[in-house]
């Protein structure tokens, strides 16, 4: 299990684990959890530790304070405006986003407030998104002369091209309801219901075989980039491999015997 030393209010990210669910909380509340270079590195380190922990079945990504994540730290960017810093910043941020996709465990973004620019990218990179009715989403880079090119990658893999282009070209702030309607968000609930809604969803997923969920997540993102014939060929191979796992055998037997399965992760 993750060491409790990571539970430090001065850390840029906070980690807590309960019932096989890890909550990873962004912790720059006064800066609306802007993704500074140290913040990106802290998230990446936390994801590496989570990925290695077999006791963690689901991850909840949340933000401390008034915002979920406001994107990159523009003040830091202005203070370090040179090619080496810029290349390192966006490279590390992209690698961090990819770690979310490649994580063994599914990740649920719990968006209680604004998720803008790279913050919108962060939410879109998660496997599921639950939002408060007060949450808002935007890719506003065009408004300051910096097109949201990297957020665009995650956004265009979550919503249709036309809706993505509307967000990217206007830079407008969109409501949680709109985000739900275009497929960026899975659930929109009242503010006071967000915690319980996310917890219920996480517990439901955590009750499944962690091995099966990991296999399925990895296969989902790989097949979606393939042509349909190659996708079926790949999925057939994954299905056969999955079928031979002990958890698949246990799950099938439990279903036939009308009992709860006992997962071993093998």
UniProtKB/TrEMBL annotation:
Lipid metabolism as UniProt keyword: yes
Functional note: May play a role in fatty acid biosynthesis and insulin sensitivity.
Single GO MF descriptor: hydro-lyase activity
Pfam families in UniProt: ECH_1 (PF00378)
Provenance organism: Desulfonema limicola
Protein name in the entry: Enoyl-CoA hydratase domain-containing protein 3, mitochondrial
CDD domains for the chain: crotonase-like
Origin: domain of life: Bacteria
Entry keyword Transit peptide: yes
Alphabetical list of SUPFAM superfamilies matching this protein: ClpP/crotonase
